[in-house]
Amino acid sequence: MKALVLAGGSGTRLRPITHTSAKQLVPVANKPVLFYGLEAIAAAGIREIGMVVGDTHAEIEAAVGDGSAFGLQVTYLRQEAPLGLAHAVLIARDYLGADDFVMYLGDNFIVGGINGIVERFTRDRPSAQIMLTRVGDPRQFGVAELDAAGRVIGLEEKPREPKSDLALVGVYLFTPEVHEAVAELKPSWRGELEITDAIQWLIEQGRPVESSVISGYWKDTGNVTDMLEVNRLVLESMEARTDGAVDGVSELIGRVVVEPGAVVERSRIVGPAIIGAGARVLDSYVGPFTSIAAGCTISGSEIEYSIVLPRSSIAGVSRIESSLIGHDVEVTPAPNTPRAHRLVLGDHSKVQISS
Fold first, then answer.
1. What is the pTM of this model?
2. Which of 18, 213, 257, 299 is the most exposed place for a label (fewest CB within 10 A)?
3. pLDDT, tens digit, for every residue of 96-145?
4. CA distances from 240 to 23, 34, 237, 272, 309 (A)
5. What single string gives the DSSP state of each residue in 218-231?
6. How far apart are CA 228 and CA 15, in angstroms?
7. Distances from the Cα of 44 to the Cαs of 30, 102, 114, 121, 180, in angstroms?
8. Would you state the pLDDT for residue 188?
9. Least confidently predicted of 48-52, 110-114, 147-151, 283-287
10. CB–CB of 173/153 below 8 Å?
11. Is 37:106 a contact under the CB 8 Å cutoff?
């Protein structure tokens, strides 16, 4: 079995971060979300990966390399434009050959990995195996309709009127029969080749399509709210560790990770939290569910339930929470007079100001 990992896409819901960075490389607990998926694939015993990349291919390739760090062999497949999940299968046709494969969306996060579903697929070998989870607003997802016996009888991508609350999780398993289905597809109303349409074709042709409703945790980390929630979940599973330098007047409370080269002075850190390699936390408070990446400086400030990307600095700011702060950002207080806000904001930014 091979894996097809989708690491293209523009990440519009994470702008302005994704104007300059691939959405799959935004870190969760100081590790890119893509890496969690690669580790799950390797843990399931899969070694060969075709990675579909787009405009951010150089950054993805620099981060993942040849895959040997994960025990994988990675082949990069260029997608000129994000034309749908089934289009990714189409351009990977030669690479996949006659092999079964798991398709894994690179910005998805699944607790517990994929070992169980891979073992089930290998044993039963249906034409397609999908994972489902119940969601509050199914209009944002591919949605499955099941019959009374729990069999999949219909699929629809982002329906205006969903027939169920069962959303497709971003992991699919296929035999080579799916290539026959993809070859029959026409673009949807969104202008994309939909993987849901390919699976629907298999159902209509009488091919076996199996599903399982997962009770564990799954998130599509496509927006800031979900990214912060996944960060919270991962931090909760960490064990406390201090590999950096913490002075005698600082307090580390609960599960706090201080990575090598980090310095904590005259500060209070309440876990779960992680302070990245070479970061400096001075005269500050870092609250629960916060990830401070490598090379950052936090001085005279308070921050909680947030993610700070590498090399950013926060100085003299009384309180930050529920925030995602990008690479090489500087956050400082505004001048006291005149009373005004001075902003330099990228396209599609969202700002909340207390005035």
1. 0.83
2. 213
3. 999 999 999 988 888 778 888 899 999 999 999 998 888 888 887 888 88
4. 28, 24, 10, 8, 21
5. EEE--SHHHHHHHH
6. 15
7. 23, 10, 6, 12, 26
8. 83
9. 147-151
10. no
11. yes
